[in-house]
């Protein structure tokens, strides 16, 4: 079935869209629509998609009364082609209009980084020309990449990669370009649909945090229980592919992904194989493991709980289709990757939306180390009485006004925090940047630590200063990793201190009922608030066992 | 066997019986310019032919499409 026919069926199925996507481009974007729509459906995103008028990107972006503005999209997909925006600053202008429009509309921006045009006046000589087509396109692309990467919440999708994947000869259809303003083949548009779908999903959803790997025929060749640690294949030869895959896993870990092991084996056999000299992945790279004979879905559930994430934050890699099917059937939110029978093809297997992630923040990269610190904390908790534990942790809290460099972390907190979250408002990165710059709002970013190490930037709140007699909490977020340590009380105390600097003594908050924010409701109820009703927050002091670091008296 | 009517019926989302020689861009609401692109792509794929730019602009009815296919040795 063609993408158009499938999309037609999806539209007829009466599904309820949960996200509104607007496409703007310098060619006929209606041709992209069914490909993106079906790709998003395959990724579990039910989207309502509309295409803007032909080659009107800048007009649609800058006019506050444009059709695009009236639609209030959640995601703005902008696809300029270099063929239409050739020349000094052409592409830069589109990128800047798109970034500003996304900010104004509180939409997430997915900008297509256009492919290098195919026309080369110098032919083979273009490669030797520093002002030629390839060189000019490369510098325009890199300028836009640098500018848009800085815009919080924006995601780039590289059309050049897709041209490379399908081949230039198969990508362009100049006949349809001349007649209908669709210069691409169905093959290329289908591939771009996939690629754009992944970018849109990346803009909308938090990345998965944990990769759980099987051992036999996933980390090494053969079953260690049968052939022994010395017998498993780690190369030279076919087994080398497992080492390359292990290097890939370590690359994920360096970007903040937690690695865990789930294997049906005897533990001593598994660790014996791990101590093989060739192994790149070492036991201390693992943040959790379950080795034994229980069903894998049980082991994965336990690993997720131990690491403090939901199963929907886990990717499970196994070579056995039966194990993958068993785990998926029991855990619908789980994503899986099938290690191919011939391990050299692992690269295609890991090229999946479930493993897509945006460049990590410093906080992401520190995650594996933080987990090690958590183990130390657990040891302390098991050796001292509960009332002494909190005091012995020597918790400290520092609240300050965010710098521009903090905006991405702020956006990430808004997207990821579910439990201690006042109202579940998923403000866009652009909107957050605006609030940070607004004189009518105080935004505070909260860093927490204790004697075992930093928790990182784990909390944030926004205080609307409004009429200067009362302040309102617009956002109040604390990552679950800092829950139960009095940090939220210290944050409220800080909010009162900030309000006081503006001569405001009353803070109002509306704690909303959201699916997973029971901790927020419990906390604000304890401060005199009623769920779903704007209420006055009781003034509190930070708990005595929390020390408040005073580096953060800024603009607030 | 793949028939021209079958290909058009799927692309235009119409019953096969509604497709006749006179079915075309001027007479069929479903045959939009975007659908025309899909018609051409689907016909090329189904019958293994390549149309020129001029042919694409001229095959605005089933009859004309069939005639162009015949010049390429395809009786559909």
UniProtKB/TrEMBL annotation, chain A:
InterPro entries: Acyl_CoA_acyltransferase, FkbH_domain, HAD-like_sf, HAD_sf, HAD_SF_ppase_IIIC, SGNH_hydro_sf. It comes from the Bacteria. This is HAD superfamily phosphatase (TIGR01681 family)/FkbH-like protein.
From TrEMBL, chain B:
SUPFAM superfamilies: ACP-like (SSF47336). Residues 4-66 form the Carrier domain. InterPro entries: ACP-like_sf (IPR036736), PP-bd_ACP (IPR009081). It holds the Pfam family PP-binding. This is Carrier domain-containing protein. It comes from Actinophytocola xinjiangensis.
């Amino acid at each position: 079935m063609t993408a158009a026919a499938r999309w037609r069926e999806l539209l007829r199925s009466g599904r309820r869209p949960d996200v509104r996507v607007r496409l703007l481009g310098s060619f006929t974007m209606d041709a992209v629509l069914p490909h993106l729509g079906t790709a998003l459906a395959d990724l579990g995103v039910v989207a309502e998609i509309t295409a803007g008028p032909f080659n009107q990107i800048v007009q649609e972006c800058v006019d506050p009364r444009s059709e695009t503005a009236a639609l209030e999209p959640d995601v703005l997909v902008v696809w300029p082609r270099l063929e239409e925006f050739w020349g000094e600053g052409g592409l830069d202008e589109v990128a800047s209009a798109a970034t500003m429009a996304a900010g104004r509309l509180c939409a997430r921006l997915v900008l297509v980084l256009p492919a290098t045009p195919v026309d080369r006046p110098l032919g083979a000589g273009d490669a030797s020309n520093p002002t030629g087509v390839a060189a000019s396109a490369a510098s325009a692309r890199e300028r836009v990449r640098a500018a848009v990467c800085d815009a919080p919440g924006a995601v780039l999708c590289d059309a050049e990669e897709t041209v490379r994947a399908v081949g230039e000869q198969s990508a362009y259809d100049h006949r349809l370009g001349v007649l209908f303003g669709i210069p691409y083949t169905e093959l290329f548009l289908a591939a771009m649909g996939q690629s754009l779908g992944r970018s849109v999903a990346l803009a909308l959803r938090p990345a998965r945090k944990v990769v759980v790997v099987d051992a036999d025929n996933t980390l090494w060749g053969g079953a260690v229980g049968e052939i022994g640690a010395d017998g498993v294949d780690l190369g030279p030869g076919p087994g080398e592919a497992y080492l390359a895959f292990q290097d890939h896993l370590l690359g994920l870990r360096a970007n903040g992904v937690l690695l865990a092991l789930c294997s049906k084996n005897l533990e001593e056999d598994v660790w014996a194989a791990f101590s093989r000299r060739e192994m790149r992945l070492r036991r201390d790279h693992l943040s959790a493991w379950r080795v034994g004979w229980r069903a894998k879905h049980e082991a994965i559930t336990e690993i997720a709980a131990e690491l403090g994430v939901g199963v929907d934050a886990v990717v499970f890699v196994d070579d056995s289709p039966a194990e993958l099917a068993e785990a998926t059937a029991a855990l619908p939110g789980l994503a899986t990757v099938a290690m191919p029978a011939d391990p050299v093809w692992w690269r295609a297997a890991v090229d999946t939306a479930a493993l897509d992630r945006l460049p990590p923040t410093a906080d992401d990269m520190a995650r594996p180390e933080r987990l090690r610190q958590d183990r130390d904390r657990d040891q302390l908790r098991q050796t001292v009485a509960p009332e002494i534990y909190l005091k012995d942790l020597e918790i400290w809290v520092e609240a300050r006004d965010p710098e521009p460099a903090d905006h991405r972390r702020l956006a990430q907190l808004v997207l990821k925090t579910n439990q201690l979250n006042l109202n579940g408002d998923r403000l866009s990165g652009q909107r957050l940047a605006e609030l940070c710059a607004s004189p009518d709002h105080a935004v505070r970013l909260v860093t927490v630590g204790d004697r075992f190490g930093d928790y990182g930037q784990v909390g944030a709140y926004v205080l609307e200063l409004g009429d200067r007699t009362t302040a309102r909490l617009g956002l109040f977020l604390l990552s679950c990793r800092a829950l139960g340590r009095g940090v939220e009380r210290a944050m409220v105390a800080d909010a009162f201190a900030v309000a006081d600097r503006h001569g405001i003594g009353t803070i109002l908050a509306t704690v909303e009922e959201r699916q997973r924010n029971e901790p927020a409701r419990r906390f604000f109820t304890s401060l005199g608030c009623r769920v779903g009703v704007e209420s006055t927050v009781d003034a509190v002091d930070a708990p005595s066992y929390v020390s408040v670091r005073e580096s953060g008296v800024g603009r607030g | 066997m793949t028939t021209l009517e079958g290909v058009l019926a799927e692309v235009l989302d119409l019953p096969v019986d509604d497709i006749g020689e006179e079915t075309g861009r001027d007479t069929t609401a479903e045959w939009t310019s975007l659908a025309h692109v899909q018609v051409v792509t689907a016909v090329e794929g189904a019958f293994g032919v390549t149309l020129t730019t001029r042919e694409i602009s001229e095959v605005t009815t089933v009859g004309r499409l069939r005639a162009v296919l015949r010049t390429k040795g395809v009786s559909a």
